[in-house]
Amino acid sequence: MTTAITSESIINIQADAVVIGISGDALSGAAAELNDATAGGLQSLIDSKKAKTCAGKVTSWLQPQGIQAPVVLIVGLGDNPTAGDCYKAGGAAAKSLGNSQLETVAFYFPELDHALLESAVAGSVVGSTGQDLHKKKPSLFRPQQILWATDNSDAVANGSKIGSGVNPTRELVNQPPNYIYPESFAEQTAQLAELENVTVEIWDKARLESENCGSLLGVAQGSDFEPRLVIIRYRGNDSENPAMAIVGKGVTYDSGGLSLKPSEGQKTMKCDMAGAATVVGTIKAVAELGAPCHIVGLVGLVENMVSGNSYRLGDILTSRNGKTIEVLNTDAEGRLVLADVLDVTLGLNPDHIVDLATLTGACCVALGLDIAGLFTNDQSWCDQIVNSAAEVGEEVWQLPMTHHFSDQLKSKIADLRNIGAGRWGGAITAAKFLEEFVGDASWTHIDIAGPAYADSAKSYIDGGASGVLVRTLVNMARGM
Predict the structure, then answer these.
(1) Residue 173: which of 115, 129, 239 has the closest Cα?
(2) 335 an active-site residue?
(3) Helix, strand, or coil (residue 254)
(4) Which H or E run contains 210?
(5) Strands, DSSP E only, in 350-441?
(6) 427, 331 in Cβ contact below 8 A?
(7) Bridge partners (DSSP) listed for residue 461
């Protein structure tokens, strides 16, 4: 699929479908032109409430008189469009047209500022891409070409690159675990080195052993697939230290280990590497945008399986920073992986660290399935993430990091235990565990267990992986 701009009017353009964005009460620009050509037809649809202006609402209008295109799709942008509204509108329109195999679709939105247009274009790229990676006949068809009626070619090009960062994240998560395992994930990530200013370093099992990554290796030891740790560097400027390190949990499949999940709980556990996939998609987009920043991404890749060699409840693991950990639940494995990866990250001397992980069901209980939880030791750094998320229209919410939660992690025979003392505040105790491995570094943890994966589709995106937080992190990197 290609994305480009057009100067052709909505009346004369030769396209399989046109998308008209509407906002507020008064019609202007292409919407007014379409309304005149159809003898007031567009206004009539709005007045009768058949076409609605609320963000992401789509109305299909077949064979309207007075224009060349056989289909008009009317999509609401909201009364005062935000970046989130525009992302949803672009995605909803593209997804609605994905039922048909179309060659060319042309978008006519009201005049939008640069950031809003980028979001709309990114949404169209994401909305037209489904999770049907292994179906003989796809459920969603991507048009061969999407045209945008604007002279802002930079916003269209950038929006397409952002969407093309979200989609690889989604594809990695949507792929089944017999396709994506630590080695294959690392091999796919290595392809990022083809991009300008990107280098990729892969640590195999022998290197992890020599680096004393005992916490990560403990989780991995029950699987036939060997673990990996991948370091991705993007140098868009000459600064010595990275402005930001992005760390991702990469459990390519999580059976729960000996603390075995029930079958229902295992069905979507291919998504337990969504944090790692977010790192890959973010750096891909940042590199293709040519952002003038220096950032680094690190992902710890393991499979948490059951075998005669699985780590056990009661085992003591020694992490890379020397702290010992008593294992009291083998399904609390993501924090054990991240513990060692965070310690590796400290050696790169980043100004700030952010980690992403599908870490706890407790965060879903607290915030539902659409909001990511934030936990931090540096309020100003966390505020930057919150503001960036708001700018692109992603939902996050900060939870407390009260000191007494650390008391639940005290062990009688080791430095730490890997779970809290009870069922309450599980997302916080998990974050407090991670805090033990970041030293004095500026750090924020993002629990994406809720929004990373959806069982059913939304109006603007297919079900499965969402690519959540890629746009937020790209926005942050561009501002560094």
Answers:
(1) 129
(2) yes
(3) strand
(4) helix 205-210
(5) 352-357, 372-376, 396-398, 416-417
(6) no
(7) 458
For β-strands 58-62 and 228-235, DSSP reports them as unpaired
Nearest-angstrom CA–CA distance, 69 and 12:
8
List the catalytic residue out of 52, 205, 261, 323: 261
Closest CA to 398 of 445, 338, 455: 445
* Global model pTM greater than 0.90: yes
**CATH class in words for 2-151:** alpha beta
Strands 104-108 vs 17-22: parallel, antiparallel or unpaired: parallel
Residue 126 CA to residue 117 CA, distance in Å, equals: 14
Q: How far apart are CA 186 and CA 406, in angstroms?
A: 34
Amino acid identity of residue 20, one-letter, is I
Distance CA 251, CA 272 (A): 5
Question: Per-residue pLDDT for the chain (480 aa), expressed as one digit of tens each?
Answer: 899 999 999 999 999 999 999 997 689 899 999 999 999 999 999 999 999 999 999 999 998 999 999 999 999 999 899 999 999 999 999 999 998 899 999 999 999 999 999 999 999 999 999 999 999 999 899 999 999 999 999 999 999 999 999 999 999 999 999 999 999 999 999 999 999 999 999 999 999 999 999 999 999 999 999 999 999 999 999 999 999 999 999 999 999 999 999 999 999 999 999 999 999 999 999 999 999 999 999 999 999 999 999 999 999 999 999 999 999 999 999 999 999 999 999 999 999 999 999 999 999 999 999 999 999 999 999 999 999 999 999 999 999 999 999 999 999 999 999 999 888 999 999 999 999 999 999 999 999 999 999 999 999 999 999 999 999 999 999 999
Domain boundaries, the chain: 2-151, 167-478
CB atoms within 10 A of CB 448: 25
Closest to 243 measured CA to CA, from 55, 384, 77, 437: 384
Q: Which residues of 234-262 are buried (b: 16+ CB within 10 A; e: fewer)?
A: bbbeeeeebbbbbbbbbbbbbbbbbbeee
Of 71, 166, 80, 155, the closest CA to residue 123 belongs to 166
Which position among 57, 284, 335, 478 bears the catalytic label? 335
What is the C-alpha separation between 58 and 61, in angstroms, rounded?
10
**Contact (Cβ atoms closer than 8 angstroms) between residue 102 and residue 133:** no
Is 211:170 a contact under the CB 8 Å cutoff? no
β-partners of residue 324 are: 318
Residue 323, helix vs strand vs coil: coil
Owner of token pair 């370093």: 201
Helix (H) or strand (E) segment spanning residue 401: none
The CATH class, in words, for 167-478 is alpha beta
Angle at 247 between CA 239 and CA 472, to 5 degrees: 80
- Spatial distance between the Cα atoms of 417 and 332, rounded to a whole number of angstroms: 10
Terminal CA-CA length for the chain: 30
